[in-house]
Write a structure and sequence with these properties.
Helix content: 25-40%
CATH superfamily of the largest domain: ANL, N-terminal domain
Number of domains: 3
Oligomer: single chain
Strand content: 25-35%
Strand order of the largest sheet: 2-1-10-9-11-12-13-14-15
Largest sheet: 9 strands, mixed
CATH topology of the largest domain: Rossmann fold
Shape: globular
CATH class of the largest domain: Alpha Beta
Number of strands: 26
């Protein structure tokens, strides 16, 4: 059976993906790309994203995916900071970024395919589509690369930059014979029992490939010869169609996707055959317990969760059965991983008390922040243990629970408040589609809580409804004093909310930013 990549009504055999990658490697080499150099991708989910990534690997070059929501100035910063020699860009995105591309950077254009154009309502011949050679025609100029493949340099993924500039996490190659690391990866990817039949695996990726998790999953499953379905954009009912159409076995999701799937009516959800699903993994953000329970009730005990970060990889894992016994947990620490919870002095906190999460995986490839080794040293709270930026606590059975991001923590009148808990509560209020909670300046208490709520279409919710609902479930000091309503919240394709875009105006008015 031949494994394939799918997107919309298109498909391509993996053998052709490898041929395109080999031709691209020759083309990259002709453009002066060699070991340790960088190729930047400003692409939505599309075949050339993976073809270019494989091609760069053949030359020992880094691939830097850029969040295509980035402004021209943000893109310029990453192109310059990473030292990219080439930029590969979708035609519809080119017009907004080409003015910021340094003169030394070559540009190759990927025509925007029909399914992406439809998903984003993109018209024909977008500005910038002729700014460079087109990918398919460019490939045909070159014979497949026949030189010896260079050792992988590792990876370089830029974090989202929710505070300050994005950070390039430049990771060394995986150590040879890293059996422990491979076992952890296979556990997270849900590959137990599939060793002899990777061609029967069908992975659906509804999240953007510029994020580290979808990117890592795509490259791993491509490497073992599995089928991969690339969703051009997350749409809840389309996801169900794709599962039925392609007989999807594996799905990588984030909690916001669960929330939107559960908003579909029972009639719509019951319309699709989802029986092929064997493994659903989620991470990237805390999942509200009522959402997780509803997903397990719907799909069965096939939902898993893992916790980690771009810097340290996955550290914990949790099955449906474990979660049902410990609602709200993100799992227990995996073998060969270390995870500690520290207070502000660097001391371990007692069971049940929140602390900053630090951790590492034995044998995991080390990293640094590109052009900023000092920042890398600053992330090491204890020798060999890296801060993830999250706060959490352990229960008596060793299960980890997340309280929120340390950078999101609100200190109001000397009390630490974690917005994730309030957001989880608000999502249970009828009529709330999504929400974001954060701290804003307050003359008396230093900070106060602000909630921005995105209601369901036609829902009638007012400020008192929000406050009364939160007060009925949480302590009074966790009730937002400021409540706003917006038709839509700013978000990435994965569903992640751009909280900084909501929060920054308050702090700029106060004369500073956080």
């Amino acid at each position: 059976m031949t494994s394939r990549l799918f997107s919309g009504d298109r498909h391509i055999d993996l053998s052709m993906v490898r041929e395109h990658a080999a031709r691209a490697a020759t083309g990259f080499a002709a453009a002066g790309v060699g070991r340790g150099d960088t190729i930047a991708l400003f692409l939505r989910n599309d075949f050339p994203f993976l073809e270019a990534s494989v091609a760069a690997g053949l030359l020992g070059a880094y691939v830097v995916p850029i969040n295509w929501h980035a402004s021209a100035e943000e893109a310029r910063y990453i192109l310059e900071d990473s030292g990219a020699k080439l930029l590969i860009c979708h035609a519809d995105l080119a017009g907004g970024v080409l003015g910021a591309v340094p003169d030394r950077v070559g540009v190759i254009i990927v025509p925007t395919p029909d399914e992406i154009a439809a998903a984003y309502q993109i018209g024909p011949s977008p500005p910038g589509s002729e700014a460079g050679p087109h990918w398919a025609e460019w490939l045909q100029q070159f014979a497949p690369y026949d030189g010896p493949p260079e050792p992988s340099p590792g990876s370089m993924i830029y974090t989202s930059g929710t505070t300050g500039r994005p950070k390039g996490v430049r990771r060394a190659p995986r150590p040879e014979h890293d059996e422990a690391g491979l076992a952890i990866s296979r556990a997270i990817f849900g590959l137990q029992g599939w060793d002899d039949r990777p061609e029967e695996i069908v992975l659906l990726l509804p999240g953007p490939l510029y994020h580290s998790a979808p990117n890592g999953w795509a490259m791993y499953f491509l490497g073992i010869g599995a089928n991969i379905v690339l969703a051009p954009r997350f749409d809840p009912e389309q996801l169900l169609r794709d599962i039925e159409r392609h007989r999807v076995t594996h799905l990588l999701a984030v909690p916001t996707m669960f929330v939107r799937l559960l908003k579909l009516s029972p009639e719509v959800r019951g319309r699709y055959d989802l029986s092929s699903l064997r493994y659903v993994m989620h991470g990237a953000a805390p999942c509200p317990p009522h959402v997780k329970r509803a997903m397990i009730d719907w799909l069965g005990p096939i939902i898993w969760e893992h916790y980690g970060s771009t810097e340290v990889g996955g550290l914990t894992i949790c099955s449906s059965e474990e979660w049902l016994a410990h609602p709200g947990t993100v799992g227990r620490v995996m073998p060969n991983c270390t995870l500690r919870l520290l207070d502000e002095t660097g001391a371990d906190v007692p069971v049940g008390q929140p602390g900053d999460i630090v951790g590492w995986r034995a044998g995991y490839a080390d990293f640094t922040y590109n052009r900023d080794d000092e920042k890398r040293r600053g992330a090491e709270r204890r020798p060999g243990l890296i801060a993830t930026g999250d706060v959490g606590f352990f229960d008596q059975d060793g299960f980890l629970y997340l309280s929120g991001r340390s950078s999101d923590m609100v200190i109001s009148g000397g009390v630490n408040i974690y917005p994730a808990e309030i957001e989880s509560a608000l999502l249970q209020l009828e009529g709330v589609r999504d929400c974001a909670v954060f701290g804003i300046p307050d003359a008396e208490f230093g900070e106060q809580l602000c909630a921005v709520v995105e209601p369901e279409a036609g829902a009638r919710i007012d400020i008192d409804d929000v406050r009364t609902f939160v007060r009925s479930r949480l302590a009074g000091f966790k009730v937002p004093r400021v409540v706003e309503f917006r038709d839509t919240l700013p978000r990435e394709d994965s569903g992640k909310i751009f909280k900084r875009e909501l929060r920054d105006p308050y702090w700029q008015d106060a004369g500073r930013q956080i």
